[in-house]
Design brief:
Radius of gyration: 37 Å
Number of helices: 1
Helix content: under 10%
Oligomer: single chain
Strand content: over 45%
Number of strands: 39
């Protein structure tokens, strides 16, 4: 009787082992792992896995065991599957079944990147004025000091256009940084990033064609169409085939409704020249004159000279790297930045005015029917935005007269902040022009007296 009990007990125990660990079928089983994304140094994730049969059904696996081929890159808890990214590089994570020793293990190559990494750049060929996409981690402009394009000898700090994170929930991790390719970026250029979390350089380089995307527009305007806004911080004046000391880039745009326009020109390469903006109703290049013929309603804005109904009027200026023209209502008598909208003066006027933009001109008009004397004085009453040392000049000349001789009063910085022009006037129409030689936005008072 006792012997029979023992046999029964052993048979039952054997059947329980066979149900939990059916080793005779373990070769048909396999371990499946969930995909682990690219990690950053210091990340902690849990690796999930399961045991499947030949039909893809989950089998009660019992315990699984986790191992890493390189613990200096990824250390993993052997029982729970918690993985710590311990360094940059790659490591193979393997998951096995303890009970089904013949089951195919699950394997996955894990990649760990530095907190700041550049993977690649695209497209491979770029012009000045175009953008290049820089792929990597930690490239959010809010998280970096700056990004450069170039080589070891010639680095150009690049202006970023946009940052697009791959996962909006983690905006500082993986994504695409778009940066402008600006002169003088060399012909082969790598991207480099300097950031508090570390520095990085792209493994590949882009080829730079050293002319901007709107060339050739030296004499034929590039048509921008009916744009609402235009922005490109990476354009250039290219070398010219003609012996021309005044390079130019021309653009055409269409404005169908009345509205404000503001133009900005800025450069870090300041020499003895500055920048001018010319708006014209028509444009023709005359090769025999090596010059442009502009339309009758053209006007030039900013340093250098003004044009009024196609008649250029030279103005001296102090060179500068930044120039802004705001075609909008900003102060009393505005908008009078062009002669077509000159503010009419009476016999006696006192106006509070503003030189709104660096090197802007304020235009005024008046007429006299008999011989008269005019006195025009511009008195500085303050600078705009904390700028110092304004330098106002006052010009008086006959309206639209090509043979007109400008009569003027000049101020010297630190010596005279109230230039005065006293003029004997013959019957006719006149312009008064107030500008600032130093390119300083300035508040001033214009006092005019015209006596017959």
């Amino acid at each position: 009787m006792g012997h029979n009990r023992l046999i029964t007990s052993v048979l039952v125990a054997g059947l329980w082992v066979a149900c939990v660990y059916p080793t005779e079928r373990s070769s048909e089983l396999s371990v499946e792992m969930d995909s682990v994304p690219v990690l950053l140094d210091g990340d902690v994730v849990q690796v999930s896995a399961r045991l499947l049969d030949a039909n893809g059904n989950v089998v009660d696996a019992g315990p699984l065991t986790f191992t890493s081929s390189d613990v200096t890159v990824a250390a993993i808890d052997p029982e729970e599957g918690f993985l710590l990214a311990t360094g940059t590089g790659v490591s193979v994570i393997t998951v096995r079944s303890k009970g089904f020793v013949s089951a195919a293990p699950g394997e996955q190559l894990i990649k760990v990147q530095a907190l700041v990494t550049i993977d690649s750049m695209r497209p491979r060929v770029r012009f000045y004025g175009s953008t290049v996409r820089v792929y990597g981690s930690g490239l959010n402009p809010e998280s970096i000091f700056f990004v450069t394009l170039g080589d070891e000898q010639d680095l150009v700090v690049a202006t970023h256009e946009s940052w697009t994170p791959v996962d909006p929930n983690f905006p500082n991790r993986f994504g695409v940084l778009s940066v402008w390719v600006a002169p003088p970026t060399p012909r082969l250029a790598r991207a480099s990033v300097l950031a508090p979390a570390g520095n990085a350089q792209s493994p590949d380089a882009i080829a730079v064609i050293r002319r901007d995307i709107y060339e050739p527009n030296d004499t034929i305007p590039w048509d921008l169409g009916g744009i609402e806004a235009f922005h490109n911080p990476a354009l250039a004046f290219e070398g010219r085939s003609r012996d021309d000391s005044l390079p130019a880039d021309w653009y055409r745009f269409t404005q169908t409704v009345r509205g404000d326009r503001t133009f900005f020109v800025q450069s870090n390469q300041t020499t003895t020249e500055s920048y001018r903006i010319l708006l014209t109703d028509s444009l023709e290049w005359r090769s025999d004159l090596s010059n442009w013929i502009i339309g009758p309603d053209s006007w030039l804005l900013g340093p250098g000279f003004q044009a009024c109904h196609g008649i250029p009027f030279e103005l001296p200026f102090q060179p500068g790297a930044f120039f802004r023209v705001a075609i909008e209502d900003l102060a009393e008598a505005e908008e009078n930045d062009v002669c077509q909208s000159a503010f009419p003066l009476g016999g006696r006027d006192t106006l509070q005015l503003t030189i709104d933009n660096p090197h802007e001109a304020d235009w005024f008009s008046f007429s006299v029917s008999t011989a008269s004397t005019g006195v025009f004085q511009a008195e500085v009453i303050g600078s705009v935005g904390g700028f110092l040392d304004p330098d106002l000049d006052v010009y008086v000349f006959r309206r639209f007269a090509t043979d007109s001789i400008a009569l003027l009063g000049l101020s010297l910085p630190g010596e005279d902040t109230a230039p005065r022009a006293s003029v004997g006037l013959v019957p006719g129409e006149y312009f008064v022009l107030v500008t600032d030689f130093a390119g300083v936005p300035t508040r001033y008072r214009l006092v005019t007296t015209i006596v017959a």
